[in-house]
Write a structure and sequence with these properties.
D-Maltodextrin-Binding Protein, domain 2; five-stranded mixed sheet; alpha/beta
């Protein structure tokens, strides 16, 4: 007599199981806000936790991806339907805006929410010399003691290269970068790889951005002079499905509550809101207070965006691909103490020569063939420099 009931129970259980399988196989709920960001969890989580307390109805999913890869995904069509892009490299937002990939929710295509600036860090205490300015990094005392990440993998490092180029100009900026190559211990694939290497003592100095180093115990950070403040940004994306939730989240990041979160010891960002900075000036990190009091200029994201591909690929062609050879040539040049000054100056000019003007770099196709051509030009220059060095090394 109980068999029909048992059958009905089994039917209900089977229906529930099938419904659960449908839910698991179905797309993520339309109420989910999706964010693609270059920031790690220690920056993102405090903001999400505070936002979640005020808006528990908005579910958020975050994908961490380096800036270069994130830009490529959005340019390719944003197939995964991200609603927000959140990163420190402002030129990335200009690139996406010019490609029509940003969604203006009523206040412009993107919003600046924090300031940052680049420099270098070291582990405390340090027995050896400490660089005071950018040129000090070229001192032979730091040979093979400096690390940086690759600008093709790190928006932070692309901003650092642009800081140098914008401050010094195209040719003088590249001359400094090419000489810095002789000082490098490694080019890391990740910004955090630089900081972790400094903490372990793998190298003495790491090139980085302020908030990454200031939030880590045991590291000292110094701003490059002049301090060039770089705006960090957040923007809504075309192809997102939650524009209202995206607008709510952006508004929260720009609110007094969101701006105060940036000052937490585990984040240490410079809020864009001048009232928050003034209100909490005493709680600002001393290095940040000092940076805001130095002479400083604004970073030009529009300029950086116009040569976005070119700067990264020139670094790959002229620095990364032949790093070991270029580094060795700098070492051998410095060892030629008794060589005629004119000959040493000639070799130095080759090692610091960027054979392309900005106009020439921007006038060629942005493809693999161009990269290979640039790499061959770099290698030819290095071979010429090596031949001159070898001749001077002969007894």
């Amino acid at each position: 007599m109980r068999r029909p009931n048992q059958t009905r129970v089994r039917t209900y259980r089977l229906a529930a199981l099938l419904w659960a399988m449908v839910l698991l196989a179905a797309p993520v709920s339309a109420e989910e806000l999706r964010i693609i960001t270059s920031y790690q969890a220690d920056v993102v989580d405090p903001m999400l936790e505070s936002f979640g307390r005020s808006r528990p109805d908005i579910r958020i999913r975050v994908l961490n991806k380096n800036t270069h890869a994130a830009v490529d995904e959005v340019l390719a069509g944003n197939d995964r339907g991200f609603d927000l892009f959140w990163a420190s490299a402002p030129e990335a937002f200009v690139v996406l805006d010019k490609a029509g990939r940003l969604a203006d929710l009523g206040d412009g295509p993107y919003a600046d929410f924090a300031w940052s600036a680049v420099g270098w860090t070291w582990r405390a205490p340090r027995d050896g010399p400490v660089p005071q300015d950018w040129n000090d990094l070229l001192d032979p005392a730091f040979t093979q003691g400096i690390a940086m990440s690759h600008p093709m993998r790190s928006g932070t490092m692309h901003s650092l290269l642009e800081t140098i180029l914008q401050d010094r100009g195209w040719q003088a900026g590249w001359a400094w970068i090419l000489e810095l190559a002789g000082q490098l211990n490694t080019i890391s694939a990740r910004s955090f790889g630089v900081l972790e290497g400094v903490e372990r003592g793998d190298f003495a100095i790491g090139l980085t951005i302020d908030f990454l180093a200031l939030a880590r115990d045991g590291l000292v950070f110094r701003y490059g002079r002049p301090v060039i403040l770089i705006p960090a940004r957040i923007a809504a994306l075309q192809g997102g499905t939650q524009p209202e939730a995206a607008k709510v989240f952006i508004d929260f990041v720009l609110s007094s509550e969101g701006q105060r979160i940036l000052l937490r010891p585990d984040i240490r960002r410079i809020p864009v809101d001048p009232e928050i900075r003034a209100e909490l000036s005493e709680s600002l990190d001393p290095a940040i207070r000092a940076a805001l009091n130095f002479s400083w200029s604004r970073y030009d994201p529009e300029l950086a965006a116009r040569r976005y591909w070119q700067v990264k690929q020139l670094f790959e062609a002229f620095v990364a691909r032949d790093l070991l050879l270029r580094r060795d040539l700098w070492r051998r040049l410095r060892a030629l103490d008794d060589a005629p000054p004119t000959e040493r100056a000639r070799i130095r000019r080759l090692l610091t020569w960027m054979p392309l003007t900005e106009h020439q770099a921007r006038s060629v196709p942005t493809d693999r063939e161009t990269l290979l051509e640039w790499s061959e030009r770099s290698h030819t220059i290095l071979r010429d420099a090596e031949a001159l060095i070898r001749a001077l090394e002969q007894p």
